Prior knowledge:
mainly alpha, Glycosyltransferase, two-stranded antiparallel ribbon, 14 helices, 56% helix
Amino acid sequence: MNMNLKKRTIWMLVMTLFVTSVVQAQKLPSKKEVMDKMVLTNAYFMNKWPDTGKSIVTNKERPSNIWTRAVYYEGLMALYAVNPDKAYYDYAVSWGNAHKWGLRDGVATRNADNQCCGQTYIDLYEIDPQPERIKDIQASIDLMLISDKTDDWDWIDALQMAMPVFAKLYKITGDERYAERMYEMYFDTKEKQGLFNPKDNLWWRDKDFLPPYKEPNGEDCYWSRGNGWVVAALVRVLDIIPADAPHRDEYLQTYLKMIKALVPLQRPDGFWNASLHDPTNFGGKETTGTALFVYGMAWGVNNGYLKASRYKPIIAKAWNAMAKEAVHPDGFLGYVQGTGKEPKDGQPVTYNSKPDFEDYGLGCFLLAGSEVYKMAK
Length: 377
């Protein structure tokens, strides 16, 4: 056994024993407490952004139908599903109307980031089936169906941005071409591009992090939020497609392997580090990866795929950490890593640090909260 492997084995054993012993004392808050945190953080954002069509200005100006805002609306729709406040629905519809239900770069785009907004467009179409709501997103995906190209998703974030769009179109049309192309592109990312490591059951963010790339401690680089995006992608697809859908078992088995791999990597304080296998590389509390893992685990318990006795304490520990340590009294969400692709990006990540985009972090938190709410008494 080489020294790095020996060190990792010892570290994983220590972390597993520590997490197992500590999480026993953790309990889920009440439904009201969970909802209060979601309502508070969402109100902060809606009050800050009353104009849903207003462009986002950071290092440059971008339209507000980009992926960061689209992830927020995923969270908002999850909140609306457990708290059907008309103000939430109206806010989402206003966003769609502001962009004429269009995509950044138009229907010809193949970029998953540009298609992410389609998740909410389709959700709103299912509530009120106005054809214009899905016209552009369906046209964009249909253009991809007539092409043989399957290697577009060359970064793992893309799985969360686009897979649920294909799944939703499959659900509302019954056309299996959407399901098959979704699988072909997922398989390309996982197997042909080799971004999934079956040894650790985690994903490299993109080809830049494939071996021989190493973290400072000699480990592979598994970025927390990147793996969180994959967990969310699998959960959202599994939640959409029917029980007899093609390739469902592949998605489920990969999801279960990832969740099992994530458990011993949880920090003693309940969060996960930005770098999953190197806690010394910009280690510290990080909300987005943590929230996405909570979302995935809570969904698994709620749907009978994970044992409640095993996972509820882990989920409670993580949710309580975010709720108590990341949520400010006014609803601002702390410990959110800014945009990027690896642990060093968007640093420093602190309670008071403001990421370049605030929206996607809240989206992740609301996704987590919506599933924790269903678990709570």
